[in-house]
Structures are given as C-alpha cells and as structure tokens.
C-alpha cells in the first residue's frame, strides 16, 4: 500500500507570496492532519480534516488555511508569506479521527526569502 | 494541556552500545503513546506505539513500555547500529492531535 505523498517536496517563495501544498493520504484513510516543523518551535499541530470538514485547528494565524476533498486528499494554503513560515510542513493520515495512529508523509520544505 | 518531555540530546554512542531515551508525559484521560523516528531530510516514521497502560511496543529491536504510574514511555535498544542514527520523537495522542517532545538526536559511531 502506498504511503502518504506530499507535493511539492521543496519550494522557494518570497515574502508576501502565497503557497499551496498538497497531501494524498494512504488509501482508505479519511483523516488528514498537518504539522509545521521548525528548529525553534519543534513540531506543532496546524489542523485536522475529516470528511471534508476541518475538525480542529492549532494556534496559527488565519493566513494558514486548508481544505479536504471528497477523495480525502488535502491542501493547505499559506497567504502573505513571512520569513518565519520557512519550515518543513508534514502531512499525516489516519483511518479516522481520535487516538488512531497517524502516518506521515516526507514533508514539503518551504523556504521564504 | 497535553505535553511531552523527553531527554535532551544530542546522544552519541558507539556501535553495539545500549540506548535509552527518557520520555514522560502529562495528559488528561488515557492517551496513546508513540515513538517516531526522523532520518535526515525525511518525514517522520512510526517506530512503535502503545495504546494502554502496561502495553509494550516493539519494532526493529527498539522497545518502550507504557507506564501509567510514572507517566513514562522510555525508549530502549540493546545494541545500536550506525543506521540507528536519527532524531527520535516521543509523542502522545489523546484526542485529535499528536503532541510531540522536542526530539533527541542520536549519533552512533562505528
């Protein structure tokens, strides 16, 4: 069974631009979560989607948004990029919400110049 | 809120040495506990998990036991290899999100 895939793997943007990252979950998984990883803050929860609905959101500004499609694929968008948004963005999928095991993709490394 | 505290690194070991990484947690309810491993330039890989008290998770020679009385989930491996060099994250999930420790960098020298 294929794992979680994320595209693109690397991205360079400039301040003020916006970016969209994509995540395809493991087949059959319907819950998708996003995390941001930075050297200073570590791994932080961004949001979780299930059945095309955002169920939970972490403590991030409204510039960070996402959505989930009917096939469970998910996208996250960051508008008006700031230098501090440079990070590894990780997507994780699980069968359902709750204390299910989450499986991670390889991540998208975003550099904001 | 939920939180995880794990041993500060970095940890440097020789091949075949014993590895232990301490992890303690604070959570409401009965969380599931996980160890994830991250190799350079990659995402997180699930190493092992335990879903209830006294469960022992194991994989690739690594073990961890869910200790409710000490709120701990320490990771151990009896004989490490160079290929075990990575960053190890302890995590818990009690509801919708994973809460991670800061990560412990392990370097194994030949």
Describe this structure in words.
The complex is a heterodimer of chains A (113) and B (110). Chain A has 113 residues and is an all-beta fold. Chain A has strands spanning 5-7, 10-13, 19-24, 31-38, 42-50, 53-57, 64-68, 74-78, 87-94, 103-104, 108-112. The model of chain A has no long low-confidence stretch (mean pLDDT 95). Chain B has 110 residues and is an all-beta fold. In chain B, strands 2, 5, 6, 10, 11 and 12 form a 6-stranded mixed beta sheet that branches. Chain B starts with a strand and ends with a strand. The mean pLDDT of chain B is 94. Chains A and B meet through strand 5, strand 9 and strand 10 of A and strand 5, strand 6 and strand 11 of B.
Helix content of chain B: under 10%
Integer average pLDDT of chain B: 94
* Number of E-type strands of chain B: 12
Q: Kindly estimate the percentage of residues of chain A that lie in beta strands according to DSSP.
A: over 45%
Largest interface: A-B, 25 and 22 residues
Low-confidence stretches of chain A: none
Radius of gyration of chain B: 13 Å
One letter per element, helices H and strands E, the order of chain A comes to EEEEEEEEEEE
Secondary structure layout:
The complex is a heterodimer of chains A (113) and B (110).
Chain A: E1 5-7, E2 10-13, E3 19-24, E4 31-38, E5 42-50, E6 53-57, E7 64-68, E8 74-78, E9 87-94, E10 103-104, E11 108-112
Parallel strand pairs in A: 2-11
Antiparallel strand pairs in A: 1-3, 3-8, 4-5, 4-9, 5-6, 7-8, 9-10, 9-11
Chain B: E1 3-6, E2 11-14, E3 19-21, E4 23-26, E5 32-38, E6 44-50, E7 56-59, E8 62-65, E9 75-77, E10 86-93, E11 98-100, E12 104-109
Parallel strand pairs in B: 2-12
Antiparallel strand pairs in B: 1-4, 3-9, 5-6, 5-10, 7-8, 8-9, 10-11, 10-12
């Amino acid at each position: 069974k294929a794992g979680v895939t994320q595209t693109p793997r690397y991205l360079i943007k400039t301040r003020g631009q916006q970016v969209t990252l994509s995540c395809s979950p493991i087949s059959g998984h319907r819950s998708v979560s996003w995390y941001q990883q930075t050297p200073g803050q570590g791994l932080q929860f961004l949001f979780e989607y299930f059945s095309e609905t955002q169920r939970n959101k972490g403590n991030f500004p409204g510039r960070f948004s996402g959505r989930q499609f009917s096939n469970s694929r998910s996208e996250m968008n960051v508008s008006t990029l700031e230098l501090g948004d440079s990070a590894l963005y990780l997507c994780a999928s699980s069968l359902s919400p709750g204390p299910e095991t989450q499986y991670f993709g390889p991540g998208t490394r975003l550099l904001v110049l | 809120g939920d939180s995880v505290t794990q041993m500060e690194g970095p940890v440097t070991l020789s091949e075949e040495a014993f590895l232990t990484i301490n992890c303690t947690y604070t959570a409401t309810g009965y969380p599931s506990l996980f160890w994830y491993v991250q190799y350079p330039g990659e995402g997180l890989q699930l190493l092992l998990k335990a879903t209830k008290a006294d469960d022992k998770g194991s994989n690739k020679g690594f073990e961890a036991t869910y200790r409710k009385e000490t709120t701990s989930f320490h990771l151990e491996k009896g004989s490490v290899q160079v290929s075990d060099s990575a960053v190890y994250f302890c995590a818990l999930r009690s509801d919708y999100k994973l809460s991670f420790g800061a990560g412990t960098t392990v370097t194994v020298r030949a």
